[in-house]
Design brief:
Layout lengths: L14 H4 L8 H8 L4 H27 L16 H6 L6 H13 L8 H18 L7 H18 L16 H26 L5 H15 L3 H11 L12 H27 L2 H9 L4 H16 L1 H14 L11 H9 L9 H34 L1
Helix pairs in contact: 5-15, 5-16, 6-7, 6-8, 8-9, 8-11, 9-11, 10-11, 11-13, 11-14, 14-16
Length: about 375
């Protein structure tokens, strides 16, 4: 007679029993593990939390609760700042920003024509968005850049299509910052790639020496000195009657300065690439330019995305140094707005607004680089 085995059924397994204990995972476990894992860590966390709450409450009270947002209805310009002065620093004077925002953004551009630089800012942002979208990474993107920059030039200068002519001396504000940053990095990057390749060249020692000398010379001086040389000394070497405007001279200085730093970043990527990639390309019978364009450069640039974007962000902010040669960029326009006697003593609000604008563009570049790095990382791991 066959033995009958009875298997005792245990209690049903539920999803709740499969979950790890609450003291091991979740926000409470994270706080205990990172902020309250010992008596001294708990004390420091409580102290910093207290200071942070006090600072945050003070900021909210200054920036929102006690702030002045609107301008008083008065015919005397000197009375515009009276509500802000009555606060005696207890609240922010955002009314000043409301009075000066057009000058901050567009500088001395004629008031009735400021829709043109405003449209240029929108076109710049749209151009950045199209360039960041991988669907546009085709040959047509070059024509998009050419067409967009041509429209921007027509809008800023005018003189055609019924628009009045505006000389560059009256340009200023955010459009100047975007022009210097966009043209500077757009022309500096290909120059940097060429310099990085030339510095690693073994077949052309003269080119290598010139590239090394260029990089070491430019990196050995501050950007202010280059801007000063471009503004004062550069016209002395030009033929008689040929005198480029200040904006073009500043643009050339920024391009040369940015290219030297970017060249070292690109060279780091080229050196980090395994030697087997070069040997495999040679084994396929590819020429030097075919190997560089299709195999070496794509991999090298993908490896140095973080330092490349870090350099881009640094030079986007460094465009504010053009104030030393009298160009009204965004920061300079904000400083000039502070010089108005009506609003003397209210500079913090202007600096906050300008900082937020810079932060917005820099954070967008940083976020895009992280996303691009993740996409390339997924493709590499497949």
């Amino acid at each position: 007679m066959a033995a009958t085995h009875v298997v005792a059924e245990g209690p049903p397994v539920t999803a709740a029993r499969d979950r790890p204990p609450a003291d091991l995972v979740g926000p409470v476990a994270w706080l205990r593990r990172n902020l309250f894992n010992s008596w001294w860590s708990s004390a420091i966390s409580i102290l910093l939390g207290y200071l942070l709450v006090r600072w945050a409450w003070g900021l909210i009270d200054w920036a929102f609760v006690n702030a002045v947002w609107t301008l008083p209805a008065t015919a005397n310009p000197l009375d515009l700042a009276m509500p802000c002065r009555k606060l005696e620093g207890a609240g922010a004077c955002w009314a000043m920003v409301g009075d000066k925002w057009r000058f901050i953004l567009f500088g001395r551009y004629p008031y009735d024509m400021q829709w043109r630089p405003a449209l240029c800012v929108v076109l710049f942002i749209a151009l950045y968005g199209a360039s960041a979208n991988r669907l546009f990474w085709r040959k047509e993107l070059l024509w998009i850049w050419i067409a967009t920059l041509t429209v921007i030039a027509v809008l800023m200068w005018g003189g055609v299509l019924g628009m009045g002519f505006v000389p560059q001396d009256q340009w200023g504000g955010l459009p100047i910052t975007l022009i210097l940053a966009t043209f500077g990095l757009a022309f500096a990057f290909p120059l940097a790639v060429a310099v990085a390749l030339g510095r690693r060249s073994r077949e052309m020692p003269v080119v290598r020496v010139l590239c090394v000398g260029y990089v070491e010379l430019i990196r050995g001086v501050p950007l202010i000195s280059l801007l000063f040389m471009a503004s004062v000394m550069f016209p002395l070497f030009m033929p008689e009657g040929l005198n480029p405007d200040k904006l073009l001279r500043a643009q050339i200085a920024i391009i040369l300065f940015a290219a030297a730093y970017l060249a070292e970043v690109v060279r780091a990527g080229l050196q980090a690439l395994p030697k087997g990639q070069y040997e495999a390309a040679d084994a396929l019978g590819l020429s030097y330019w075919q190997k560089t364009r299709t195999i070496i450069l794509p991999q090298a640039l993908r490896m140095v995305i973080p330092p490349l974007v870090n350099t881009f962000i640094g030079f986007f902010k460094d465009t504010s140094l053009v104030l030393i040669i009298g160009i009204f960029d965004l920061l300079t326009a904000g400083k000039v707005a502070m010089a108005d006697p009506v609003w003397s003593g209210f500079s913090t609000e202007i600096y906050i607004v300008v900082a937020l604008i810079y932060f917005g563009f820099c954070y967008a570049m940083s976020s895009y680089s992280r996303g691009l790095e993740k996409q390339f990382g997924k493709a590499k791991n497949r």
